[in-house]
Write a sequence for this structure.
């Protein structure tokens, strides 16, 4: 299976886990397992999908087409100054998911996402829950946020963002 | 001129009922046919299948048209509102051609009519078949006052069953493929295109273009024209040296007659003698043959005709020809491009890998590279050939990585180009 197909299977996984979470809603400990899986898989789908695009653009576009710092951003590498010339270093420089979305939309859309809007609000909410789960630490994760509603919100938000990106960058409807 | 008898019964209609004779007589009195004017008799025939009685005659357009009922009923008594004819297909190329022909004086024949004055008495010529021809005649009369005699088959005193059967058979025809229309039009233009493809080996000596898509891999006229147009478009491309950064849209010739771009190009008679074009044609012919041979040798893939004939898919042939034209200024890349046939151990186009190729933005229904003829598929395929021609590894063929990278490159170029366009507009 290719990476492009794999990232899309995360969407199917998260839908599957949500269904399970709902079907065990009267057994919270069991339902919680599926809620966690739903949120994490949704995020994996978005992140993997974004990485496919950024890597594809970063490796495909020549220096005539994009600026060096843009290329470094897409490839998630540092820039270094070598013998009087800027070049892309081998050292990784990972970018936040949020920044990748904003950059892709602005640079290739070109489209601004409304930061005060509901979609962005939901995205930040899901990001916070996901970060709390992945880097679980006292004060970072509110267990009360791990609900079926939020799991459902995670899938919807992630799919909506992917669709907006697909429509603006590739001018086509993403069907997932 | 007086006629001795106004009708003759033929041998199969000897027992013509009086009702029919009366109806024919009535028709003869009411309608100004050419036969009547010239003093000729009608022959009454009896159709062996439906047992319906009919005559054949000729009527001028200006006489017939006001009397034609274009929407006759099939079942006059029970279902008078349901018409016998199919809907017109106003955009069908054959119909548009028919209209143009009518305007230049084309005479049509075998328009199927029932003479019936039981309802809509002012229009007793009930049209059961040939509505596109009749409408074309009407248009020619209206727009250009073209008056010509046309051939009619007139039925009399039909039962509902007879009427239905005649209407059905009149509205059934063997679909003539647009590729056949292209081939006929090309024959009219002369033998040059056919000669060229015979010369480069894509057609055998004395072989003509295929009249439809076929499993045998014989090229159609449309694709033959497409190759030529794209090669010349490629050689004439004058927009910078950064081929790899561009998004190309190979041209697919229109079908159903003559393509205007192709027509313009062949006005220059010198094109046929171009060594570069002949070389490209020969290389493409080799590619097509090797692709067929390689797939036929593969026990698993040989059942897939689309893999076998991948080279003459619309996306591949148009892109290949465009890239061959574009690379004329880049001898090293052209050499690598033409080397694809020699360097490939399996099928040179790697049709299976192409069919499995996907981009992250593609819907689940996407069937792989070069399976359709839309802009995206042609553009991606052109990018694949351009990318391949620029590979430094002389032995490398088309593999999964090459295909995926080319698709990613096409999408990146397209997104970047769109952005630049919008940026320029804002400035």
């Amino acid at each position: 299976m290719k990476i492009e197909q794999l990232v899309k299977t995360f969407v199917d996984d998260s839908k599957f886990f949500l269904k399970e979470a709902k079907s065990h809603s009267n057994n919270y400990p069991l339902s919680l397992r599926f809620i966690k899986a739903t949120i994490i898989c949704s995020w994996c789908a978005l992140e993997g999908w974004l990485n496919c695009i950024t890597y594809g653009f970063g490796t495909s576009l020549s220096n005539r087409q994009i600026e060096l710092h843009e290329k470094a951003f897409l490839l998630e590498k540092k820039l270094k100054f070598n013998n009087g010339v800027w070049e892309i270093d081998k050292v990784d420089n990972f970018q936040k998911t949020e920044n990748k979305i904003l950059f892709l939309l602005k640079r290739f859309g070109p489209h601004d996402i409304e930061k005060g809007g509901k979609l962005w609000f939901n995205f930040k909410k899901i990001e916070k829950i996901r970060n709390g789960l992945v880097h679980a630490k006292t004060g970072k994760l509110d267990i009360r946020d791990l609900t079926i509603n939020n799991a459902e919100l995670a899938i919807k938000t992630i799919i909506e963002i992917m669709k907006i990106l697909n429509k603006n960058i590739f001018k086509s409807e993403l069907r997932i | 001129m007086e006629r001795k008898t106004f009708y003759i019964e033929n041998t199969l209609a000897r027992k013509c009922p009086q009702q029919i004779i009366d109806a024919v007589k009535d028709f003869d009195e009411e309608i100004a046919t050419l036969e009547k004017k010239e003093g000729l008799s009608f022959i009454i025939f009896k159709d062996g299948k439906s047992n319906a009685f009919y005559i054949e005659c000729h009527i001028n357009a200006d006489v017939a048209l006001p009397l034609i009922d274009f929407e006759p009923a099939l079942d006059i008594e029970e279902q008078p509102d349901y018409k016998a004819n199919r809907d017109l297909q106003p955009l069908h190329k054959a119909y548009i051609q028919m209209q143009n022909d009518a305007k230049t004086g084309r005479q049509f024949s075998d328009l199927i009519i029932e003479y019936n004055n039981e309802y809509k008495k002012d229009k007793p010529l009930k049209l059961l078949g040939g509505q596109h021809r009749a409408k074309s005649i009407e248009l020619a009369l209206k727009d250009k006052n073209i008056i010509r005699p046309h051939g009619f088959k007139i039925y009399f005193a039909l039962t509902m069953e007879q009427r239905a059967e005649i209407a059905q058979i009149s509205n059934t025809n063997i679909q003539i493929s647009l590729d056949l229309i292209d081939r006929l039009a090309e024959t009219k233009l002369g033998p040059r295109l056919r000669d060229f493809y015979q010369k480069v080996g894509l057609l055998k000596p004395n072989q003509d273009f295929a009249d439809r898509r076929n499993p045998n891999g014989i090229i159609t006229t449309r694709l033959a024209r497409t190759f030529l147009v794209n090669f010349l478009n490629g050689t004439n491309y004058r927009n910078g040296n950064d081929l790899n950064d561009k998004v190309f849209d190979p041209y697919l010739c229109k079908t159903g007659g003559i393509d205007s771009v192709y027509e313009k190009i062949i006005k220059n008679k010198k094109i046929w003698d171009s060594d570069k074009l002949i070389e490209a044609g020969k290389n493409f012919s080799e590619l097509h043959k090797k692709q067929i041979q390689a797939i036929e040798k593969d026990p698993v893939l040989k059942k897939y005709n689309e893999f076998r004939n991948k080279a003459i898919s619309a996306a591949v042939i148009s892109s290949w020809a465009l890239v061959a034209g574009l690379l004329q200024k880049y001898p090293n890349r052209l050499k690598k491009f033409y080397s694809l046939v020699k360097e490939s151990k399996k099928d040179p186009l790697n049709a299976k890998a192409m069919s499995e190729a996907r981009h992250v933005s593609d819907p689940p229904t996407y069937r792989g590279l070069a399976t359709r003829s839309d802009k995206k598929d042609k553009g991606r395929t052109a990018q694949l050939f351009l990318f391949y021609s620029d590979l430094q590894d002389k032995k490398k063929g088309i593999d999964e990585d090459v295909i995926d990278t080319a698709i990613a490159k096409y999408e990146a170029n397209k997104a970047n180009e769109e952005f630049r366009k919008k940026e320029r507009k804002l400035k």
The mean pLDDT of chain A is 93.
